[in-house]
Amino acid sequence: DVIAGFLYAILILVVFHPVVDLIDNFNLTYKYAPLIIITEGMATAVEKVEEQLAGLRIAGRCVPSEEPSYLLDIHTSTAAQPGSSRLAAVSCSNQSIRVYDRERLRFLREYRARAGVLGGVRFAHTRDSVVFSACSAGTVQCWDVRSAAQEPVQVFRGYPSNAFISFDVSCSDLIVCAGTEKVEKDTFLVFWDARGVTDCAGATKEPLGVYSESHNDDITKICFHPTEPNLVVSGSTDGLVNVFDINKDNEDDALISTCNSDSSVSSLGWSGKDYKQVYCVTHDEGFCWWDMAQLDTEEPITLLHVLDVRESVCAENHGLHYLVGGLYHEKAGKLFLIGGTSTGNIHLISCGTDGLSLVGTLCGGHSATVRSFCWSPTDESLLTGGEDAQLLLWKPGAVERSLTKKASLKISSSVQKRVRVHNTSLKSRKK
């Protein structure tokens, strides 16, 4: 009986084994097939975006100013009302801020900062007529572009030894934060209340407070989170990238994370779903990318660390001389880097956890090093500014009128003779 029962069990197993396999295979297919389809769809969307970026062409360029200068930083306004025109503000090496109609690149106004080198330019998020600038003389100034008056409508004054080289405005326009150069042993993140900036023309605001312990060298870059006004990231020549929650009572509690880029930070920003990732570019053309969502897990937060992007990205015959910064494409959920050559070619580089790859090269626009750019997700366009004193607007599939192009290039060639060529072989400072 025991032997008969054993043989019967074997018979059942043999007979029904193919059925079991069929069911398992069906379940496997059912569970994983949709995942494969979604992944392929995502890849197609990313490829389409990469094609659009590689297909950017010159849609317009500004007429160079009578006093040619490097275009160091660019920012564009958000149209406050449907149908209203957007503006572009550019900080220049001659300590001026130039304002343009963004679509036609028509020059509108120019403001002269007080003594000192400009440390960037930013439009307010909720008021498209308000633009901020920081300078090494120890102030952040606020301008109302509706007025031609040369006096700022608001001045945010720092402490006597402060020389500001970086700054940003929170997404709610409530807080302004600026970073200083190192003076003796001190370096600061200085904060101000930015409410009511145009209500009291000519008024001066004193700081709310400072962070002084988290960096020990020049604070080269500051960037508030795109949607959470209490989060801000800062980068320094000390190689550290710090993320803060400024709602906390003190600096120690506010410091959420410290990441080490191992080199001097030149640019940084937020990326990823819900902008939970932070990336930075270094002065010796390195790239670091971290995931803040992994802070409370056992998973590593480093997504990618490239010591020298010039060696890891094949830019064919054009070469890659430098990086300018990063561009997070929200629709595609993809991070890109923008770099280029000393002759003005612009390289678009795709970032993945498995490495970097060249998407395309924009040629025929600039004739010297590109120092700044601003991406517009609204119309998928790119503004670029360089050491040739040119401001260019790039759009997918655009066609530039040849007459404008020839005239601009003729001007830029004479400009180039009067400006110093940017050194593309910067070495990282000793820590």
Automatic annotation (TrEMBL):
Protein keywords: Membrane, Repeat, Transmembrane, Transmembrane helix, WD repeat
Signal peptide limits: none
Top-level taxon of origin: Eukaryota
Parts of the chain that traverse the membrane: 6-23
WD repeats: 212-254, 363-395
InterPro entries linked to this entry: WD40/YVTN_repeat-like_dom_sf, WD40_repeat_dom_sf, WD40_rpt, WDR89
PROSITE patterns: WD_REPEATS_2, WD_REPEATS_REGION
Record has Repeat as a keyword: yes
Protein name per UniProt: WD repeat-containing protein 89
Organism of derivation: Irena cyanogastra
